C-alpha cells in the first residue's frame, strides 16, 4: 500500500506547472496515469512533447528508479523500459518533491491488446517479453513487479514495453514491490528474493491472467489450484508444460523458457496446418469429379480431332479423285 502522506504530497491537479529546480524545464500536468508504493505517475507536456512524469518525496526511491532506467539504457537490444529524459526537484510550499521524466509509452495494456487481437498473440508477446528479461537478468537485475498492468503494447509492429520500473531489484536482494497474484511467495511457491525464476513465475501468471482477466484468489491450493485453473481453459493448455515449469522453478533462465514457448508455438502451427488440410478432405470427391470432367473433356477433344482428321483425309481423297477423273476424261 502507498503511504498516505506521500500520496497527498505528490498529488497535483490537471494544469499544474512543475518546474525543475536545477534544469528549469517546465512540465504541464495533463492527467494521472497511475500510482504505486513510491510515487505517482502523470502524463505531462513539455513544449510539444508528451512525457510521463513520476514524483515522490522519497528521494532514495527516485534515485533507485533512475539508476534502473540508466541501466536499461545500457542493455543493448532491449526496449523493455522507457527512456529517461530528465531528473530534478520541484520546490513547493509543502516541501521539496523529487521527480524524473521519461518517455511516454502509448498503447493498450497487454490484456487489452490480447482481448482485441485474439489469444493467438499471447505467445508472440511472451516471446518478446522473455527476450528482454534475459538481457535484464544478464545485467544483474530482476524486474520484480511484473504484471500486465505494467506492460504496454506499442506499434505497429507490435512491441511489448514496460511503463513502471519501481519494482526492479538487483539480483540477490529482497523484491521491492510486488502484486500478490503474480508473486510466488503469495502462492507458497518460493521466496521473495530477487532471482530470474521470480520473474519467470510472474510470466507464467501473466499467461494465466490472459485467460482469467478478472484474476482469482488463492484458495489454499497452491500449485494444485493453479494446475486446475489451467485445465479449465483451452488456450492455457497449449502452454501448459511451459507454465507449470515456470511456476515450479524448473527453468534456469528466460532463454530456456523462451525456447520451450517457441517450440510449442511451432508445434501449434504445424497442428493448425494439418487441421486445415483435414478440413478440406470433404472436398476431395469434388476434386475427383473435377478430374473426371477433365478426362472426359480431353477424351471428347481427342475424339473430335480424330473425326476432323478423317474428314480432311476424305476431302483430300475426293479432290484427288476428281483431279484424276478430269485428266482421263
Description:
The chain contains ten helices and ten strands. It is α+β, with helices and mostly antiparallel strands. The protein folds into two domains: 4-103, Phosphorylase Kinase, domain 1 (2-Layer Sandwich); 110-268, Transferase(Phosphotransferase) domain 1 (Transferase(Phosphotransferase), domain 1), CATH 1.10.510. α4 runs antiparallel to α9 and α5 (196-211) packs across α8. The model is unreliable at 1-6, 284-290 and 306-329 (pLDDT under 50).
Brief synopsis:
The chain is built from ten helices and ten strands.
List the helices and strands and how they pair.
Elements: H1 4-10, E1 17-19, E2 26-36, E3 39-46, E4 49-56, H2 59-74, E5 84-92, E6 95-103, H3 110-117, H4 121-138, E7 141-142, E8 151-154, E9 159-162, E10 169-170, H5 196-211, H6 223-231, H7 234-237, H8 240-247, H9 254-279, H10 284-328
Helix pairs in contact: 4-5, 4-9, 5-8
Amino acid at each position: 500500500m502507498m503511504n498516505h502522506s506521500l500520496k497527498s504530497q505528490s498529488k497535483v491537479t490537471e494544469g499544474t506547472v512543475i518546474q525543475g529546480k536545477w534544469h528549469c524545464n517546465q512540465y504541464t500536468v495533463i492527467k494521472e496515469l497511475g500510482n504505486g508504493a513510491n510515487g505517482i505517475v502523470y502524463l505531462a507536456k513539455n513544449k510539444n512533447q508528451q512525457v510521463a512524469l513520476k514524483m515522490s518525496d522519497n528521494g532514495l526511491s527516485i534515485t533507485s528508479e533512475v539508476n534502473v532506467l540508466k541501466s536499461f539504457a545500457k542493455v543493448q537490444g532491449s526496449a523493455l523500459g522507457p527512456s529517461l529524459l530528465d531528473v530534478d526537484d520541484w520546490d513547493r510550499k509543502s516541501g521539496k518533491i523529487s521527480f524524473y521524466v521519461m518517455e511516454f509509452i502509448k498503447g493498450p495494456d497487454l490484456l487489452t491488446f490480447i482481448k482485441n487481437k485474439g489469444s493467438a498473440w499471447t505467445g508472440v508477446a511472451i516471446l518478446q517479453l522473455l527476450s528482454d528479461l534475459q538481457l535484464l537478468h544478464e545485467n544483474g537485475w530482476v524486474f520484480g513487479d511484473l504484471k500486465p498492468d505494467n506492460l504496454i503494447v506499442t506499434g505497429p509492429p507490435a512491441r511489448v514495453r514496460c511503463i513502471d520500473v519501481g519494482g526492479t531489484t538487483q539480483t540477490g536482494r529482497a523484491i521491492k514491490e510486488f502484486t500478490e497474484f503474480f508473486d510466488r511467495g503469495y502462492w507458497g511457491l518460493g521466496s521473495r528474493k530477487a532471482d530470474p525464476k521470480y520473474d519467470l513465475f510472474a510470466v507464467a501468471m501473466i499467461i494465466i491472467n490472459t485467460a482469467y482477466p478478472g484474476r482469482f484468489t488463492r484458495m489454499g491450493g497452491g500449485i494444485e489450484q493453479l494446475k486446475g485453473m489451467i485445465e479449465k481453459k483451452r488456450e492455457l493448455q497449449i502452454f501448459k508444460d511451459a507454465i507449470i515449469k515456470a511456476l515450479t522453478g524448473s527453468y534456469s533462465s528466460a532463454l530456456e523458457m523462451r525456447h520451450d514457448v517457441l517450440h510449442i508455438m511451432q508445434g501449434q502451427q504445424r497442428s493448425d496446418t494439418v487441421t486445415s488440410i483435414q478440413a478440406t478432405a470433404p472436398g476431395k470427391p469434388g476434386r475427383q469429379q473435377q478430374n473426371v470432367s477433365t478426362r472426359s473433356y480431353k477424351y471428347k477433344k481427342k475424339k473430335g480431332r480424330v473425326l476432323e482428321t478423317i474428314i480432311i483425309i476424305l476431302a483430300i481423297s475426293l479432290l484427288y479423285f476428281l483431279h484424276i477423273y478430269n485428266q482421263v476424261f
